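User: Please fill in residues for this 478-position structure.
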């Protein structure tokens, strides 16, 4: 077959695999990245136009330090122009680490006999959620190993439990899921519990390399995982997140794999993924992989900037696997969500599971273990507007990132005011005096920044709502 770099060789058909490894390598090997070409691609993205696979290949091939700087500068400009200064905060909650798969990079894998297997029972789950609420969290992602105990009904029930827990003024307003791919019926069951995003990471998009790291269990089936989010869409779960585990294979291939996955979902379901995650492998109990494809900090920061330009209207999620310094840098390229106050040992938020083997209850090591308060303080110091907003989801506005990107004025009319309202709640209920002072200053500054850019009634309503929050009302949004 003759290779046409603008058109994918595999036609997009719902529920059918869509990755052609030779196509991706053809693009990487046969695309030149001279200065003009790179600048033209960056400009196209800055004009809010969708990049093709070939154009993304131009960016991943740009090796010259000056061009890499241009790419990073482009990502920073896109972020400033389109997204502003909000960063949405969430926390992961590990529900259970039983696992029948054998992924060689993961501490939960079935052959890791060191791992202490735990599943939160209902009272433990409730205590974990209470502890998270007491620190100010509003958005969680529930994480599960892949095991017959974690059936769709079980996952749905844990989601319902989480939504019911209220502690003081605390409540969880959005529950996302990171769990194994399900069948269509299973996705329907979980969807009915009112989940936000269902995340499945492909880990590596390269089918042969995938086999090397997935030695047993259902996850060894590359195609079943690849088409997992198609089944979610077929089941009506239209808010999905994709991801690749960087360090398993060539990072350039994975970036193109993520873009190809985005194209596939757009072609088949008219909606791309809500979010993209790009975890880098960190040390884990019993980790059994070589460092052949490990991604350096320089490559990592570069790939985040490329992803921002490649899929400008998709949310980018960065986690505490990354150290503080890297988190700081890549946030400026347009990361939209980060976790704060993260603990990944089962039961660690409330210390509800007592044993002295904490290390063996976690899936991998994290590199940023600061409290939520400390993360918020740093965001405020750096001029960001921390947000716990869940308004779009609760108003039935799906595709929030797409709207942010494509509806003129959407961010200023909805996202920024809502971010300020959720920050005001956080200040009233959870912040210490120093963070409270910084927080109110940031809110004042952001209100001033809106003046003249939105209708005056929006500012009046925003100020009224903030007053109401000061008087004890909660959960106000636009
Ligand atoms: N068990 C489900 C699965 O595998 O899809 C969901 C939960 S799994 C605990 C969530 C993600 O953690 C995986 O998809 C993988 O990308 C990531 N992960 C596993 N081991 C890791 C490691 N050593 N370092 C960083 N991330 C890791
Ligand atoms: Fe199990 Fe997921 Fe870990 Fe694989 S990555 S061993 S499926 S928990």
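Assistant: Residues filled in for all 478 positions:
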């Amino acid at each position: 077959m003759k290779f046409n770099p603008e058109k994918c060789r595999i036609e997009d058909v719902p529920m059918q695999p869509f990755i052609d490894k030779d196509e991706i390598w053809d693009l990487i090997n046969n695309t030149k990245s001279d200065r003009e070409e790179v600048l033209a691609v960056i400009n196209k993205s800055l004009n809010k136009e969708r990049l093709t696979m070939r154009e993304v290949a131009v960016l991943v091939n740009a090796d010259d330090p000056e061009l890499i700087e241009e790419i990073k500068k482009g990502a920073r400009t896109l972020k400033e122009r389109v997204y502003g200064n909000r960063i949405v905060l969430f926390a992961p909650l590990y529900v259970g680490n039983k696992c029948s798969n054998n992924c060689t990079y993961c501490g939960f894998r079935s052959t890791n006999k060191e791992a202490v297997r735990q599943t939160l029972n209902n009272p433990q789950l409730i205590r974990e959620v209470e502890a998270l609420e007491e620190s100010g969290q509003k958005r969680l992602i529930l994480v599960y190993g892949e095991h017959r105990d974690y059936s769709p009904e079980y996952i749905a029930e844990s989601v319902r439990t989480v939504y019911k827990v209220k502690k003081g003024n605390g409540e969880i307003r959005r529950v996302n899921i990171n769990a194994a791919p399900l069948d269509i019926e299973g996705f329907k069951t979980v969807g009915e519990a009112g989940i936000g995003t269902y995340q499945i990471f492909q880990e590596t998009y390269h089918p042969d390399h995938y086999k090397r790291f997935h030695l047993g269990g259902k996850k060894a089936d590359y195609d079943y995982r690849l088409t997992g989010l198609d089944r979610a869409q077929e089941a009506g779960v239209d808010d999905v997140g994709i991801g690749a585990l960087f360090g398993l294979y060539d990072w350039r291939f994975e970036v193109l794999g993520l873009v190809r996955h985005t194209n596939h979902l757009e072609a088949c379901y008219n909606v791309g993924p809500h979010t993209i995650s790009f975890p880098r492998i960190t040390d884990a109990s019993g980790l059994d992989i070589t460092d052949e494809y490990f991604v350096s900090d320089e490559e990592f920061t570069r790939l985040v900037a490329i992803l921002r330009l490649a899929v400008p209207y998709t949310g980018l999620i960065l986690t505490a696997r990354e150290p503080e310094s890297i988190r700081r840098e890549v946030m400026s390229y347009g990361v939209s969500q980060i976790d704060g106050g993260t603990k990944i040992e089962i039961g660690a938020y409330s210390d509800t599971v007592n044993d002295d083997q904490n290390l063996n209850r976690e899936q991998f090591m994290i590199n940023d273990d600061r409290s939520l308060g400390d993360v918020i303080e740093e965001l405020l110091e750096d001029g960001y507007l921390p947000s716990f907003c869940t308004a779009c989801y609760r108003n039935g506005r799906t595709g929030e990132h797409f709207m942010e990107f494509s509806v003129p004025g959407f961010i200023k009319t909805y996202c920024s005011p809502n971010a300020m309202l959720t920050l005001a709640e956080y200040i009233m209920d959870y912040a210490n005096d120093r963070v409270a002072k910084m927080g109110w200053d940031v809110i004042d500054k952001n209100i001033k920044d809106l003046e003249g850019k939105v209708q005056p009634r929006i500012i009046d309503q925003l100020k009224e709502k903030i007053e109401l929050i000061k008087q004890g009302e909660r959960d106000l949004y636009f």
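For context: Residues 410-430 form the longest helix (21 residues).
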